[in-house]
UniProtKB/TrEMBL annotation:
<comment type="similarity">
    <text>Belongs to the glycosyltransferase 2 family.</text>
</comment>
<dbReference type="GO" id="GO:0016757">
    <property type="term" value="F:glycosyltransferase activity"/>
</dbReference>
<protein>
    <submittedName>
        <fullName>Glycosyltransferase family 2 protein</fullName>
    </submittedName>
</protein>
<keyword id="KW-0328">Glycosyltransferase</keyword>
<dbReference type="InterPro" id="IPR029044">
    <property type="entry name" value="Nucleotide-diphossugar_trans"/>
</dbReference>
<keyword id="KW-0808">Transferase</keyword>
Amino acid sequence: MIGAAVVLYKPDMTQTLRLLRAVSEQVDVVTIIDNSPHVTPIELDTDNIHYHHFANNIGIAAAHNIGLRDLIAAGCEFAMLLDQDSEINEEFAFRLSSLLVASRKQNRPLIAVGPRIICSFSEKTVKPRVQREVARYDELVCVTQIISSGMMIDLSKVEQIGLKDESLFIDGVDHEWCWRAREQDLMVAIAEKVEMVHKLGDARSKFAGVTYKVGSPIRLYYQFRNIFLLLRRGYVPNYWKLRNLCVLPIRFFANSFLQDRRLERMKFMLCGIWDGIWGATGAYNDNWKSR
């Protein structure tokens, strides 16, 4: 059995219903974890959907964990994770699951496989600037990390490395889980011939000839904080640590002076740096609402 866990947060219903229809036709069970303030009306004529609503927004890691536990309890062998702003074709789940099945038969230590990502802004394939290729197997390129949306997981191997790290709440959750898998000698891979359109960030901006993602101000809190939290962990790749430390001042400048809502963005970045240095985890409101 194949299951899918779809995480929602104030979704665009036209796009979301299109995704849910495509997913429900390809898998046996769909678990929806809705972090929106209000219940999202899901009007689909299917009985294979489980719906969980968390008005207080429990974060992406906790949402994934609820979805994974739900799919394991339903007897699924494989679990596909999806964000609300991803687009998949009609063979997406079958092709990814087939690669995992083939890897099992060949005794490859593969725990998850994801697609080539096509950015919805540029309509071009996303090519990470810095990422180490570990190995190649036929249509698979084993790498150090892949993003969570579109990721299909072999659930029989999850117990070996554990679920997602809820202390991170959102940013870096997918990469941290992949690095932890590598620490346990398990691999993640990109399927060379499987593509998925995905929205990365809310917008795009350019500084000094470099195009970068622009997100909401509060996302900066998690991005900056989680860099400092992950710097402490030995299994996090050194290239990731070095790159993020080097670009941190540039990102702070760009988000402080080149975007709108400058003071608000600066506040969230400074709070993130403070909490990252002192090791605060969880949701922003849990750490700062009472201050």
